[in-house]
Specification:
185 residues, 6-stranded mixed beta sheet, 20% strand, alpha+beta
């Protein structure tokens, strides 16, 4: 059974809120989900999803793709954090999405990698973004730039953008999260 991508992204956003509300800090950072690294975040997310009946035992983290929901979705993820845990603007934070070259670690590179991935699951790319509430540096222009580069420059066909936003996070800098996702066709 292939769950609709909108439902999967909503469940992932809810899992991130569970991680956040646990107030367990990542390393020596402030409590909250925002500072987690991508592998650690996805590992915890997979644990939460696997505890739900709909996903039970089908979710695993991998190197390629980042998150696999067997018989459903092969997913690549990137994090977008304009500000660090210390409240300073992060250097090169937008490169995680926009570096348009094959073999790199950007969301665009992930789309190219997904296009070549041989699997029976549907493919999607997702961005987990953290912002102040209201945003000091908004993620929307970055997301639109990603879509334009993907579709018009790299000729990657994306499905409609799916957006799930959650507010009221415990971290003083990463106060809200938004998960953006697209099916890679």
């Amino acid at each position: 059974m292939v769950e609709p991508l909108k439902d999967v992204i909503s469940d992932i956003a809810d899992a991130l809120v569970v991680i956040d509300s646990s107030r367990v800090p990542y390393r020596n950072y402030q409590p909250g989900v925002g500072p987690y690294g991508e592998p650690q975040l996805l590992r915890k997310t997979a644990e939460i999803l696997n505890s739900q009946d709909i996903y039970r035992g089908r979710v695993e983290t991998r190197r390629n793709p980042d998150l696999l929901i067997r018989e459903s979705w092969a997913m690549e993820f990137k994090l977008a954090r304009p500000f660090g845990d210390n409240g300073r603007e992060a250097e090169n934070w937008s490169v995680n999405l926009l570096h348009p070259y094959e073999g790199n670690q950007s969301a665009l590179g992930d789309c190219l990698k997904l296009r070549e991935l041989d699997c029976s699951e549907q493919k999607s790319v997702a961005v987990v973004g953290y912002e102040h509430d209201p945003p000091v540096i908004a993620l929307k222009p970055l997301v639109k730039g990603f879509e334009m580069l993907a579709e018009h420059i790299l000729k990657i066909k994306l499905g409609p953008r799916i957006v799930e936003n959650r507010r009221g996070l415990v971290h003083p800098i990463h106060q809200q999260l938004t998960v953006y996702s697209w099916q890679v066709l």
